[in-house]
């Protein structure tokens, strides 16, 4: 058994045509084909979350506010 990796292209009608030299003797064979899109390439651009980050200006005692919320439960 051999694993063969080839690249192909699907035509406008949705057909994939492959032509592979196998070096196998004539006769029946069993083939498994896994289809998938190529993995996206990492172009180095990452989303910048700096515009979403910030600091909350809190007026009062945050611990007291948390205890007040807990007492409501």
Give a description of the structure.
- The chain is largely without helices or strands and 73 residues long.
- 14% of the residues lie in helices and 0% in strands.
- It contains 1 helix and no strands.
H/E order of the elements?
Answer: H
Q: Which geometry do the CA atoms define?
A: elongated
What does the radius of gyration come to? 30 Å
**Strand element count:** 0
Summarize model confidence as the mean pLDDT: 81
How is this fold's topology laid out?
Elements: H1 62-71
Compact summary:
This protein is low in regular secondary structure and 73 residues long. The protein has one helix and no strands.
Descriptors:
little secondary structure; 73 residues; 1 helix; elongated
């Amino acid at each position: 058994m051999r694993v063969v990796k080839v690249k192909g292209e699907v035509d406008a009608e949705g057909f994939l045509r492959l032509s592979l030299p196998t070096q196998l003797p004539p006769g029946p064979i069993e083939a498994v084909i896994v289809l998938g899109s190529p993995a996206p390439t990492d172009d180095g651009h990452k989303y910048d979350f700096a515009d979403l980050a910030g600091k909350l200006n809190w007026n009062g005692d945050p611990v007291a506010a948390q205890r007040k919320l807990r007492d409501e439960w």
